[in-house]
Specification:
The complex is a heterodimer of chains A (about 170) and B (about 750). Chain A is built from 5 helices and 12 strands. By secondary structure, chain A is of the alpha/beta class. Chain A has one domain: NagB/RpiA/CoA transferase-like (Rossmann fold, 3-Layer(aba) Sandwich), CATH 3.40.50. In chain A, the strands form 3 sheets. In chain A, strands 1-12-7-4-2-3 form a 6-stranded parallel beta sheet, sandwiched between helices. A 4-stranded mixed beta sheet of chain A has the order 8-5-6-9, with helices on both faces. In chain A, strand 5 and strand 6 form a beta hairpin. The two termini of chain A are about 15 Å apart. In chain B, strand 5 and strand 6 form a beta hairpin. Chain B contains 34 helices and 17 strands. In chain B, the strands form 4 sheets. Chain B has a 6-stranded parallel beta sheet with strand order 1-10-7-4-2-3, with helices on both faces. A 4-stranded mixed beta sheet of chain B has the order 8-5-6-9, sandwiched between helices. Chain B has a 4-stranded parallel beta sheet with strand order 12-11-13-14, sandwiched between helices. With about 750 residues, chain B is an alpha/beta fold. The chains are: A alpha/beta (about 170), B alpha/beta (about 750). Chains A and B meet through helix 3, helix 4, helix 5, strand 9 and strand 10 of A and helix 8, helix 10, helix 11, helix 12 and strand 9 of B.
Chain lengths: ~170, ~750
């Protein structure tokens, strides 16, 4: 089932113009190297057996490093296969800031956190609300506006998003 | 015409010329996007569910306010329920404390309160960070749309504005350059701000969660960057919990911009765990969450009274998506600076402005809702927007100044309305009486009515534009004709029997289409009698003359219910009269009465479709043999889902049918006759006429123009300078080769 969800999720990301890499925990360093454009900042990955150590990512960044970084790397705690959305949590480490300020967001997702649709996501939210993880953003594609007369990508949020899916997590 | 009326017509003319083209491109773009995006989901299920959730939440509002107060306070924030704008502004200024600067994300509720002006007066620097709002802040203009506040401005206009104001090193030109400039400019303001202010699309009571649905990311930045977050929301934004959120997430972006999903759906339960950030600091981020402050400001400002008002209540279900604006032909041509009040725009603006500031606040724009009903199926929470407009019009009529009464048509208006409403509306509302007189005295009445002195009097006295051709009354009405003739049908070939219910125009003016309907049904083996009543009360209803419309509905029900109970089917030639019975009578008649009539009522081609589907032989009808048509379905007919029946029947009978996309022809009953609105009506009609011409240039030359509504026929005949035909006249076994000018 998970494989089917992953395929649908990657299709949805394609439709949004969002790149993705499906890989294993062991091969995460290669995937990160391919996805990151320096300078990069990040927040710790709390998933088993993976980290940002040695990936050239500053964790945690100073405000100035955050402001001038090209890439921000964060874990995401859910993905919606139907829409290609990812869940950016407001963790104390600063995921919300790191996923928002740099022009490129690299999101690291456990494949087991994928769900099919919106109702499944709100089910997950309800559970995390109950355990005090009660703020998150469902982010779909890149920041955009049509307010200047035509669609322009990259407004206040990232202009590029890349999702790394850990198939064995 | 009064000076007030004159300035209204001038205002509409100016906006048609200036903002109109940009508004049209953007509104039609959103509207097409909505159709495409809604096609991918079970819209009916989601909309029903969303409406039920909102209805329940508004019902439970006092309880939800208490719940959210407890949850936000338990989280460490504050909650304030402001009675009105002054109360809200005073509180907002207080929670902003000694802040020098506030950055805001888009919020119509703060527009309603004039928060920016009040904070500015208190010495606080306020910056709008949504790009559309920022453009308007620089231009010092009001929003023209609920979700795209600056969508009346073209790229060139924004570039000129920015270049003049900011004098950049290189003049800005393209959307990408303008966006990059605004991002950098606003980014700096956000990093330096003391307070971030957002609205809320939804507030989840049991967890104290603020839901923000945005595309640019500015609401995220405003909420997370300054230490203090102030969220301002009308009380109607409360939902019980996250369990109620899913249908709104699915519907909101689809209904608003035609996106499947908005870029960012933020679920923030502030104060959040995100670390505070000071861009002057050299320390790594990662602490200070305990320094975050959060203030939720809930706004009453008339909403509790709306909640008690049976007709305005459902305005509170509104999720501010703008679909009612985008699907509105009038709005598409003038935008919210004509079709809107102090704050709110489009069809739903009547509910909001009346609820917040009273009925008189809708005076300048409420007439722009013609009741075409195209917004009804567009609304994600199924608000009956035209009904709200009609009710408020009724209340305004009732409260109008009796001194305005003139005696021009005194005695011709046997309506049930209070004295005081304008005579122009009253004449249109009583068109059945005028039509009876017109037929009785035809052709004299037509010669007289068309004479220059009378047209001038009509324009000055009743606001009927002299540029419109007046209806030509027929001496012999449809009912006279039916009583005089011997029915062509000797022995019925089905078990059905029809009572044809003529509208005022079919009975008195466009009698030919009524005759065609009778002959067509008889040719299919169904006996037909013409009903003893004419008109369903559509005309007074449109003018907001609800007392008259109620009386009319009751007498129509008295007359027609026995037919339905005897097993006869009621058939209507005019879609707007059918829509009256099917969609409006339940608001005018005691419970149950409307349903009986609605269940027994059919549009004439819908009825033909049903007969053919049940195996009736169509041989006696006139076939198309490949004749090329362009068909414009009536707005209310489309809302009832009956346009497909006409297309199917015409297709089955060998006609080559192209169709139009325009939401409405712009004539909309009396609307296009009114001097104030003549130009707007013609502009809307021109868009439809252009579609007809485009269809003809693509294919093999001129197509016969076919329209189901009287108004549509008149508008198309006027603008294309060739007659439009009702579809039943094509099927008529006695059809002549050339359609007559009056149908």
């Amino acid at each position: 089932m998970s494989t089917t969800l992953a395929a649908a999720f990657v299709d949805a990301l394609d439709g949004l113009g969002v790149g993705s890499t499906r890989t294993t925990a062991a091969e995460l360093p290669d995937a990160l190297a391919g996805a990151i454009e320096g300078p990069a900042v990040g927040t710790p990955l709390p998933f088993d057996g993976v980290s940002l150590d040695g990936a050239g990512v500053t964790v945690p960044p100073t405000p100035d490093q955050l402001r001038t970084a090209t890439t921000g790397v964060t874990p995401v705690f859910g993905g919606v296969a139907e829409y290609g959305s990812v869940v950016v949590e407001s963790r104390p480490a600063g995921d919300e800031l790191v996923a928002l300020y740099p022009e490129r967001h690299v999101a690291v997702l456990r494949e087991s956190d994928l769900v099919a649709g919106i109702e499944d996501t709100t089910d997950t939210f309800r559970e995390s609300f109950d355990s005090d993880r009660d703020s998150a953003v469902l982010a779909t594609g890149v920041s955009a506006t049509a307010d200047m007369g035509a669609t322009v990508e990259g407004v206040h949020g990232p202009r590029e998003v890349h999702v790394i899916v850990l198939s064995d997590r | 015409m009064s000076a007030d009326n004159e300035s209204r017509a001038e205002r509409i003319r100016r906006l048609l010329d200036t903002e109109g083209p940009t508004v049209k491109r953007n509104a039609q773009g959103f509207n097409e996007g909505r159709y495409a995006a809604m096609a991918d989901v079970d819209g009916e299920r989601l909309r029903t569910e969303a409406r039920e959730i909102k209805a329940d939440a508004i019902e439970r509002l006092p309880e939800l306010i208490e719940t959210v107060r407890e949850s936000v306070e338990a989280n460490g924030g504050t909650v304030y329920l402001a009675d009105d704008a002054a109360d809200a502004n005073e509180h907002i200024a207080a929670v902003c404390g000694d802040a020098d600067s506030v950055v805001k994300s888009k919020s119509m509720t703060t527009e309603e309160l004039d928060v920016n002006e009040h904070l500015a007066a208190a010495g606080v620097d306020v910056t709008e960070t949504d790009l559309g709002e920022f453009v308007l802040q620089v231009a010092d203009e009001a929003p023209s749309h609920l979700i795209a506040p600056g969508f009346h401005k073209s790229t060139d206009e924004i570039a000129a504005l920015f270049n003049a104001r900011f004098d950049p090193d290189e003049p800005l030109e393209t959307p990408a350059e303008l966006t990059a400039f605004a991002r950098d400019h606003l980014g700096e303001r956000i990093r330096e701000a003391d307070v971030g202010m957002t609205g809320a699309n939804f507030v989840l009571a049991d967890s104290g969660t603020i839901t923000l649905v945005t595309n640019e990311g500015n609401a995220r930045k405003c909420a997370v960057t300054p230490d203090t977050h102030v969220a301002v929301a009308g009380v109607e934004k409360l939902l019980p919990s996250i369990d109620e959120l899913p249908p709104f997430i699915e519907l909101l972006a689809r209904s608003a911009t035609g996106q499947e999903m908005a870029q960012y759906v933020s679920l923030l339960t502030p104060p959040t765990d995100s670390p505070t950030i000071d861009f002057d600091s050299t320390e790594p981020i990662g602490g200070g969450a305990e320094d975050r402050e959060f203030h939720l400001v809930l706004i009453d400002n008339g909403r509790f009274e709306m909640r008690e008002d049976d007709d305005l209540r459902e305005t509170l279900y509104c999720v501010r998506c703008g679909a009612c604006s985008n699907s509105c032909a009038n709005f598409q041509h003038v935008g919210g600076h004509a079709f809107g009040g102090d704050t709110y725009t489009g069809g739903i603006a009547t509910g909001w402005e009346a609820g917040i500031d009273g009925e008189e606040a809708t005076e300048s724009f409420n007439d722009l809702c013609t009741g075409c009903s195209r917004c009804v199926n567009a609304c994600p929470v199924k608000i009956d927007v035209p009904w709200i407009n009609t009710v408020v019009r009724h209340r305004r009529n009732r409260g109008a100044d009796p001194a305005a009464v003139e005696s021009l048509v005194d005695g011709l208006v046997p309506d049930a309305e209070d004295a005081g409403m304008g005579w122009g509306k009253r004449a249109f509302g009583n068109v059945d009486t005028l039509a009876r007189l017109g037929s009785a005295t035809a052709p004299l009445s037509n010669w007289l009515a068309d004479s220059a002195p009378v047209r001038s009097l009509l324009e000055r006295g009743l606001g009927i534009d002299a540029r419109r051709a007046l209806p030509e009354f027929q001496r012999e009405t449809l009912r006279d004709w039916s009583q005089r003739r011997t029915p062509a049908l000797e022995s019925p070939r089905t078990d059905r029997e029809v009572v044809l219910v003529p509208d005022v125009f079919t009975n008195h003016v466009d009698v030919d289409r009524g005759k065609a309907a009778v002959r067509t049904l008889e040719a299919l083996g169904v006996p037909v009698q013409v009903a003893g009543v004419t008109g369903t009360g559509r005309e007074p209803f449109s003018q907001g003359m609800l007392a008259t419309a109620r009386e009319r509905a009751a007498s129509v029900a008295d007359s027609l219910t026995p037919h339905v109970e005897a097993g006869r089917d009621l058939v209507f030639v005019e879609p707007s009269d059918l829509a009256m019975v099917r969609a409006e009578y339940d608001k005018l008649l005691p419970e149950g009465r409307a349903e009986t009539l609605a269940d027994g009522s059919f549009e004439v081609i819908e009825y033909v479709y049903g007969l053919l589907e049940n195996g009736v032989d169509p041989t006696p009808l006139t076939r198309g043999d490949g004749e090329t048509l362009i068909y414009h379905a009536h707005c209310q007919q489309r809302t009832l889902g009956l346009d497909a029946h006409t297309e199917a029947v015409l297709g089955r009978l060998g006609y080559d049918v192209a169709t139009t996309e325009a939401e409405c022809c712009g004539m909309a009953g009396s609307f296009g006759y009114k001097s104030d609105y003549y130009e707007l009506s013609v502009a809307v009609g021109e868009s439809l006429a252009e579609e007809v011409e485009a269809a003809e240039s693509d294919a093999d030359g001129e197509r016969r123009v076919v329209a189901s509504g009287t108004s549509c026929e008149e508008q198309l005949t006027d603008l294309l300078d060739r007659p439009a035909t009702h579809p039943v006249e094509l099927l008529d076994p006695a059809r002549s080769d050339e359609p007559s000018a009056d149908g």
